[in-house]
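look at this:
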Amino acid sequence: MNEEDRRKFYERLYFHELEVRDKVENRLKLPFSIFAIVFTLAVFLFNEVLVKKSVTVDAFFWTIYLGALLALLFAVGFFIVSWYGYTYKMLPTASDIEAYYGRILADYQDVSPHKARSWAKEAFDDYLMETFKTYATHNTRNNDRKAFYLHRCVTALIISFMLICVAFYPYYNSLTAI
């Protein structure tokens, strides 16, 4: 793979990672509704069991209920880690890039006016390739980390939801006995 092909590859990779960032950001919206459902169910059970005392519960209920709350707490933690603390590297503005090219060209003009344009082009192409490569790598690591913690968040939410549904059994059972 020659230099030009590599630069084009890194350029495509850079823009691909920006698209992936947007997709991961959109996936981060899903857990909000699941949080609301699980939290509402947990509060309802808390109200029925501890406040109204409409259900007598045993150790099985408390184990499952506290497990659901613990899983919900983990889900919130994973969600925060997947949402917050990421900085993405973006290309400099077109004016900054052009100014950089002008500085390179001026520096090479001082050294050799005849070869300045070819040296400046080569240095500028190297700069673009290194920029795309470095920024794409940084953004890929961010996206991978975000997706990993988002996956953990959704997994913890599913576990929490399943446990809270199982914890509803004593409440539901007491309603059918009436």
